[in-house]
């Protein structure tokens, strides 16, 4: 039989909306409060987003069936520069942006509206048939829509102002000099939410070791300054363009691409002229005084740091393989054959030269072998963790590599033989406006100081009390708490809440979304109050129960204040937070930090992280048009078919690959299930002994499904319920 799944979905969605089925009010039942990351509304809702919201909805529905009073709210994230950048691209008639909007149903005569950032966001939040509100309704999500808001609503901005007054009063908002990801077009710092490419990329601190040749300095970037004792040569790229430039009073040889980076990081860069590499000539190595040749290597990337690279073949697989390749060169082979790896680190379990050993073990034959990256990670990891400097390295002899790395760097800097440069761990890093980002050292940026040890201890204590799913991800939170220091929390441009302690700055998008779960508890009620009346005293009472004489003199109805206080007390603490795994390194750990400080007696009970969704093996992308929209999928398979397939392939924390061929078979499964149920219901006769046995077996399946759902194993629950 064939069932009109889309029609059934529309029928019940209409009934739920009309009856307010999912409006959650405090009562005598046990409560369950779950939230999921609100969407950043810069484009249409696709199936990657759908899975993010279907999973917590399934959990919410399960808890309702178990007798819980469930709150599952939703809002929209407007904050930040990407939407402003997108609107600017519309104003500039950017072809790619205009093409995307037209492809997703925007009419030519409407395009002018999209030059307004707030309209751009509102369109994808609530106006478009391809937007988030419509998509979530089509999927049948059991959301309490009364609590809906955006992060630029004036009431929400007052809430964020309260939060940042508390942080500022505790000395956790600081101003200083710091390296940040920077978009030169937006003239603003950027974070992962602002990027088209480069999410999760770190800013690394490179040591620029100054190899000298007369009055020229060749500053080679390295993350391992301790390996200077094993240097055999330096590399320049024969196909790149190099310059000699005045840098802080010295004549540096660097790639053309390095000059603007050095300027952004505070170096005084003067006149530059072209430089033709003199391969075969020698430079002097600091600390050791030895002389080594300059040799050609195409892997020396002119876009990375200075484009000058030191060669340590005993401890760097890329360098060893490059030297091996060069030995067959008719021009430089003789020099290359004379250069032997110099071992400076003793590593238990490895031979004299770990890089050489690993390259041979992995069967790596040339510089194009992808296994080189794996080999490099192994050598660097093992040497940093267990290696010690060999006896012949002088004052560093016997020192653990982890300590020698710091000591050698400090000594080189003190002697004037090194400098510092910041660079991305992976290139390129591209802003949503389309521009390549760089690393900039800013002098007057505002930061949240996550480096305070007492705050870290609060966060660690909070984390220890939470259930983390999957459990193995807990180590990532612990690691992030450890390394987090200053985080740039303001921007000069963008949508969002003005920083309340200074003029001309806006709270950035990852910093205004750390405790909004508390705001959901009152968001439907606070709209009855004029935003101008919402000062810190109002929120102090709602969230902390602090009543002041000033509060009594406000025009807010006392019973409304009491009701908001009661709502917060009933729903908090949050039971579960659901978000993406890649946000552990920022948003989710910020969530732990801020709750540990502002709500220490009402800490969240748990966090579930989700894997990503791919389409036929590739990441979905609105800008590239590689996606399936929610209306398209629901039109084909109905909301139940889409939900069924999104849950069927993997557990929530694992990546999921949407395959059209597999998705097409889901409707047949559901049709067969309905047919089976109808057949069973139509069977005549009284209850027999076999029915009691079947009921017993059924109860066992219920037990197994319940166990799976309590552990958020939605795939296992579905498999047991439908296929076993």
Task: Summarize the topology.
Blueprint: H1 5-19, E1 31-36, H2 47-65, E2 69-71, H3 82-91, H4 95-103, H5 117-127, H6 132-138, H7 154-169, E3 173-183, E4 188-189, E5 195-197, E6 203-213, E7 216-222, E8 233-236, E9 242-247, E10 250-255, H8 258-264, E11 269-275, E12 282-284, E13 291-296, E14 309-311, H9 317-326, H10 333-338, E15 345-346, H11 354-362, H12 371-386, E16 388-389, H13 401-415, E17 418-424, E18 430-431, E19 438-449, H14 453-464, E20 467-469, H15 474-483, E21 486-488, E22 490-491, E23 506-507, H16 516-520, H17 536-544, H18 549-552, H19 558-571, E24 576-580, H20 584-598, E25 606-610, E26 613-615, E27 618-619, H21 630-648, E28 656-658, H22 660-682, H23 689-710, H24 714-723
Parallel strand pairs: 1-2, 1-24, 7-10, 8-13, 20-25, 24-25, 26-28
Antiparallel strand pairs: 3-4, 3-19, 5-18, 6-7, 6-17, 8-14, 9-10, 9-11, 12-13, 15-16, 19-21, 22-23, 26-27
Helix pairs in contact: 1-21, 2-21, 3-5, 6-21, 11-12, 14-15, 14-20, 15-20, 17-19, 21-22, 23-24
Question: Pairing-aware structural class of the strands and helices?
Answer: alpha/beta
CATH homology-level superfamily of the largest domain: HUPs
Contiguous runs where pLDDT drops below 50 for at least 5 residues: none
Q: What is the C-level CATH assignment of the largest domain? A: Alpha Beta
Biggest β-sheet description:
6 strands, mixed
Shape: globular
CATH topology of the largest domain, by name, is: Rossmann fold
Q: Can you give keywords for this protein?
A:
724 residues; alpha/beta; Rossmann fold; Isoleucyl-tRNA Synthetase, domain 2; six-stranded mixed β-sheet; five-stranded parallel β-sheet; 24 helices; 28 strands; globular
């Amino acid at each position: 039989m064939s069932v009109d799944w889309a029609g059934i979905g529309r029928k019940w969605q209409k009934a739920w909306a009309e009856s307010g089925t999912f409006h959650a009010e405090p009562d005598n039942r046990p409560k369950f409060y779950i939230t999921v990351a609100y969407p950043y509304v810069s484009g249409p809702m696709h199936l990657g987003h759908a899975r993010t919201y279907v999973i917590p909805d399934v959990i919410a529905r399960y808890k309702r069936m178990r007798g819980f009073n469930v709150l599952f709210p939703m809002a929209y994230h407007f904050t930040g520069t990407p939407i402003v950048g997108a609107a600017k691209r519309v104003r500039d008639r950017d072809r790619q942006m205009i093409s995307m909007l037209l492809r997703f149903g925007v009419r030519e005569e409407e395009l002018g509206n999209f030059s307004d950032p707030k309209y751009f966001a509102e369109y994808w939040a609530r106006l478009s048939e391809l937007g988030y509100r419509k998509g979530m309704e089509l999927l049948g999500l059991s959301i309490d829509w009364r609590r809906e808001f955006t992060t630029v609503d004036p009431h929400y901005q007052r809430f964020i102002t309260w939060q940042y007054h508390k942080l500022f009063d505790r000395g956790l908002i600081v101003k200083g000099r710091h390296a940040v990801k920077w978009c030169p077009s937006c003239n603003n710092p950027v974070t992962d939410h602002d990027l088209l490419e480069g999410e999760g990329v770190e800013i690394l601190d490179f040591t620029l070791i100054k190899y000298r040749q007369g009055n020229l300095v060749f500053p080679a970037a390295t993350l391992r300054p301790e390996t200077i004792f094993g240097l055999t040569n330096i590399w320049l790229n024969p196909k790149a363009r190099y310059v000699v430039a005045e840098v802080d009073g010295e004549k540096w040889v660097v790639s053309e691409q390095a000059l603007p980076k050095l300027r952004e990081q505070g170096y005084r860069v003067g006149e530059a002229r072209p430089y033709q590499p003199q391969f075969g000539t020698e430079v002097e190595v600091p600390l050791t005084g030895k002389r080594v040749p300059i040799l050609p290597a195409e892997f020396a990337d002119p876009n990375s740091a200075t484009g000058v690279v030191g060669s340590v073949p005993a401890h760097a697989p890329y360098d060893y393989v490059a030297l091996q390749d060069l030995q067959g060169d008719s021009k430089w082979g003789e020099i290359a054959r004379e250069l032997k790896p110099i071992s400076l680190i003793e590593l238990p379990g490895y031979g004299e030269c770990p890089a050489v050993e690993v390259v041979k073990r992995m069967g790596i034959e040339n510089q194009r072998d992808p296994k080189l990256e794996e080999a490099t990670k192994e050598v660097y990891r093992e040497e940093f963790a267990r290696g010690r400097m060999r006896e012949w390295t002088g004052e560093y002899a016997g020192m653990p590599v982890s300590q020698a790395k710091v000591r050698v760097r400090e000594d080189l800097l003190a002697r004037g033989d090194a400098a510092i440069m910041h660079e991305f761990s992976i290139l390129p890093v591209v802003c949503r406006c389309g521009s390549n980002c760089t690393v900039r050292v800013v002098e007057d940026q505002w930061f949240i100081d996550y480096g305070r040890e007492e705050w870290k201890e609060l966060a660690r204590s909070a984390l220890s009390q939470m259930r983390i799913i999957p459990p193995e991800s807990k180590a990532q939170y612990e690691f992030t708490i450890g390394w987090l220091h200053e985080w740039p929390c303001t921007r000069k441009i963008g949508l969002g809440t003005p920083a309340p302690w200074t003029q001309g700055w806006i709270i950035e998008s990852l910093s205004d979304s750390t405790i909004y779960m508390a705001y959901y508890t009152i968001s439907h009620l606070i709209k009855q109050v004029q935003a101008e009346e919402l000062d810190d005293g109002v929120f102090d009472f709602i969230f902390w129960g602090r009543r002041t004489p000033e509060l009594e003199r406000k025009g807010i109805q006392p019973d409304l204040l009491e009701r908001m206080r009661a709502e917060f007390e009933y729903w908090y603490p949050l039971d579960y937070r659901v978000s993406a795994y890649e946000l552990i390194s920022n948003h989710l750990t910020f969530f732990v930090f801020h709750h540990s400080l502002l709500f220490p007696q009402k800490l969240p009970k748990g966090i579930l992280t989700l894997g990503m969704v791919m389409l036929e093996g590739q990441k979905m992308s609105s800008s590239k048009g590689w996606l399936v929209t929610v209306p398209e999928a629901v039109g084909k398979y109905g909301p139940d078919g889409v939900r069924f397939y999104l849950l069927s392939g993997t557990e929530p924390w694992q990546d999921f690959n949407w395959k059209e061929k597999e998705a097409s078979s889901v409707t047949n499964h559901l049709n067969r299930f309905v047919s089976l149920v109808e057949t069973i219901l139509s069977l005549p006769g009284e209850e027999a002994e076999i029915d009691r046995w079947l009921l017993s077996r059924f109860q066992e399946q219920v037990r197994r499904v319940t166990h799976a759902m309590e552990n958020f194993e939605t795939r296992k629950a579905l498999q047991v319920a439908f296929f076993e």
